[in-house]
């Protein structure tokens, strides 16, 4: 191996915990009562609208507005009538989300193992360029990453082969010499393997951490 690509959300960056805690603290600020069932609904709505953005049916800001259009009625909160008002409400959620950004404890050790192997390090993420780079900086990992590729910047998203191949090209390595690690089996494993990379599935429920996955492929 000469390089490793990491997914970002729920691989290096604990998106699920960060977002869930943000919803818990944000919901009361819009005049609603928080209940735990709202967490599942938030993520269901997020997934559908985010996939709409990846498919080109929505703009990035449009998928944020779409999430509020579905979620606010669940709270019994009046839905703003203009995009500007929707954006203002979503900015409130984002403030709570950013305050809770955190890396998984094993994220930096995994990157350090990869760096110790002499590997180039990339992050390949289906997300917006500005936000994903901001996450890496905020959680203290940006200094160990050589290339950050986003679906927004590439113009293509995982699991399209071009996403992996273009990232390998940016790192100066061949797909056959590259390992991909991520939590999403379809996007980070099957897609990567179809593009000619080696891939490992990060399943935290199995008790295997990022650093272990890097070491066993070294």
From TrEMBL:
GO biological process, one term: small molecule metabolic process
Molecular function GO labels: hydrolase activity
Cofactor(s) demanded: Mg(2+)
Species of origin: Kribbella caucasensis
Identification of the protein by name: Putative hydrolase of the HAD superfamily
Keywords for the protein's UniProt record, in alphabetical order: Hydrolase, Magnesium
A Pfam family: Hydrolase
Entry keyword Hydrolase: yes
InterPro entries linked: HAD-like_hydrolase (IPR051400), HAD-like_sf (IPR036412), HAD-SF_hydro_IA (IPR006439), HAD_sf (IPR023214)
């Amino acid at each position: 191996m000469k390089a490793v690509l990491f997914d970002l959300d729920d691989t290096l960056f604990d998106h699920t915990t960060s977002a869930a805690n943000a919803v818990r603290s944000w919901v009361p600020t819009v005049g609603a009562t928080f209940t735990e069932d709202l967490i599942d609904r938030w993520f269901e709505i997020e997934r559908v609208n985010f996939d709409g953005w990846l498919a080109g049916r929505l703009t990035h800001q449009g998928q944020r507005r779409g999430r509020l259009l579905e979620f606010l009625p669940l709270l019994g909160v009046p839905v703003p009538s203009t995009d500007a008002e929707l954006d203002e409400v979503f900015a409130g959620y984002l403030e709570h989300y950013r305050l809770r950004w955190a890396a998984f404890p094993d994220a930096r050790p995994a990157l350090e193992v990869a760096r110790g192997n002499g590997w180039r390090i990339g992050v390949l993420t289906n997300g917006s360029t500005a936000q994903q780079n901001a996450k890496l900086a905020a959680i203290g990992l940006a200094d160990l990453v050589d290339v950050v590729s986003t679906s927004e910047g590439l113009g293509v998203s995982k699991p399209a082969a071009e996403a992996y191949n273009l990232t390998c090209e940016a790192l100066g390595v061949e797909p056959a010499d590259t390992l991909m690690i991520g939590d999403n089996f379809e996007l980070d494993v099957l897609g990567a393997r179809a593009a000619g990379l080696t891939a490992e599935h990060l399943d935290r429920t199995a008790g295997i951490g990022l650093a272990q996955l890097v070491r066993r492929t070294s």
